[in-house]
Design brief:
The chain is 31% helix and 23% strand. It has two domains: 9-319 and 394-489, Rossmann fold, CATH 3.40.50; 506-633, 2-Layer Sandwich (GMP Synthetase, Chain A, domain 3), CATH 3.30.300.30. It has 635 residues and is α/β, with parallel strands linked by helices. The protein binds adenosine-5'-triphosphate (ATP) and magnesium ion (MG).
Length: 635
Amino acid sequence: MSNYHIKHLEEYYQVYRKSVRNPESFWEEIAEEHFLWRKKWDNVLSWDFKKPEVKWFEGAKLNITENCIDRHLATRGDKTAILFEPNDPNEGAEHITYKQLYHRVNQFANVLKEQGVKKGDRVCIYVPMIPELAISVLACARIGAIHSVVFAGFSSTALSTRINDSDCKLVITADGSYRGSKTIDLKGIVDEALESCNGVETVLVAKRINSNISMKEGRDTWLQPLLDEASNQCKAEIMDAEDPLFILYTSGSTGKPKGMVHTTAGYMVYTAYTFKNAFQYKENDLYWCTADIGWITGHSYIVYGPLANGATTVLFEGVPSYPDFGRFWDIVDKHKVNQFYTAPTAIRALAKQGVELVEKYDLSSLKVLGSVGEPINEEAWHWYNDNVGKNKSPIIDSWWQTETGGIMITPIPYVTPTKPTYATLPFIGIQPCLMDENGVELKGNQVDGRLCIKFPWPSIARTIWGNHQRYKDTYFSTYENMYFTGDGALRDEVGYYRITGRVDDVIIVSGHNLGTAPIEDAINEHPAVAESAIVGFPHDVKGSALYGYITLKDVGESRNHDNLRKEINQLISDRIGPISKLEKIQFTQGLPKTRSGKIMRRILRKIAEKDTSNLGDTSTLLNPECVQDIMDNVL
Ligand code: ATP
Ligand code: MG
């Protein structure tokens, strides 16, 4: 039996039991056998969820880049580490080998050092999905600087807030970025942001689109000439296990983004181990995660997890719709991708386009399909399974959060039998539980409650940057001695978990607690529906009633809308029960989403409640234009 690589269900159960009965010895063995340490730990784990404080592998010394790069040089030096697929398919892919990555990271690290960046300093990375993004992340880690990657689609306000919150002294950016047929003036956004960031001394600018930008004397420097001058050797800074590796802000679906702090050793061990198993990664597989490195998914499963396993990871600059909606499948076909990890929002958008664009390509290389970010509704699950996976590639519906650092609940492909809409079983070492509103744990199966985690895992975020109290209040104050996820879930008759939505979004109709996901699922089964979101609004008799926002596949749908409303409610009634029927149904052109593609129910709720005085900052949305349209047509 191998604890590092789970190959069948019986083995999963055995290893799982071992990992929760004696977590310390379990993780110690994984850490000992599969990573490179400059010094081993004095203590595997100390924790106290009351403070809260968690420390893994205390006393150990390491550098994560030695684990992600250096140690592969002897055996995988000429293997591709990063396969860069540019926005424009005609530009051609770039293969960066482990040896080249080693040299480029070292050069970049030396540039940062010359600019005065030291261990513990914060560096803001506002770079599009080009190799410099991954390389700058690793260069920071090489010298012990704390990276704070900000998604390069965010506005100047979102950027300046994040720069100031974590006190960054240096910003790495690019002259601009490509996004499908458009270019974005990134440097202009940075200039605007920095008008309100006094702490930033230096801006390093990578050249991507060759646009004519202005450089501020004494502050802005082109990156390439500095890299050309720099040595390609840079000794790795030796870090403590608990030294911060990075700060990353949550998506902000539920409020002001939180700057989660992840530390070095536990994060490395957990992301590497989950990557290996959740994707069943084998040497020479080609792995592609479509997320942006600006999100936790990109940190853990484009950069650190894959590289720690010596994998080849695809870095895609473009968008799923350019040059046409077949781009994802074109890339899978061209590079023979084996593992493909994306988000439900992308699947729904592609499903809306029909199957012709999928069928044009040879997808037979695919072995594992993944989904993350939101509940994947049943309709989208089947579309993905039938058309992309051809019923032979298991879908891993992986539930986790920025705060958790790595995948927490997921099927292990070819090990755990999948079930649509279920994230299924806890990953090795993860101890989930369900709590009721009164703080009582719901034991046994077929229960529905609030999802908590009982015991620390190696990659749990250690704090919120500069605000430990908020960390404590948000995650550790709702239930005693538990990490509270903020999500609701149910456990079915075999112990599989299904995430039912955010606890804050639960709607109480005539005394019944209704989660959003199962109802949206039923709605999305209607053949005319592309996407939906439900929220509650005050109702005289029921307390709250359900308001549904529904986008149709064919926006110009000429069918009688009242009939469609009836059909949708009939579907809900059949699938879930009459209690979940929608009081009001508004057909929309689109649904407001965060930049990472999550539906912003918070805004929809306010509109349904007819309280639009304080919608918050909608400019950071992916599609702010749809908000006005929804407000204009509210029922
Ligand atoms: P904020 O915390 O600022 O409101 P956020 O929660 O959207 O933002 P993330 O950490 O990116 O920020 O997202 C984690 C959340 O995404 C989870 O708590 C859960 O609600 C949802 N999620 C992620 N994966 C899944 C999944 N497979 N199934 C259901 N929900 C998921
Ligand atoms: Mg969250």
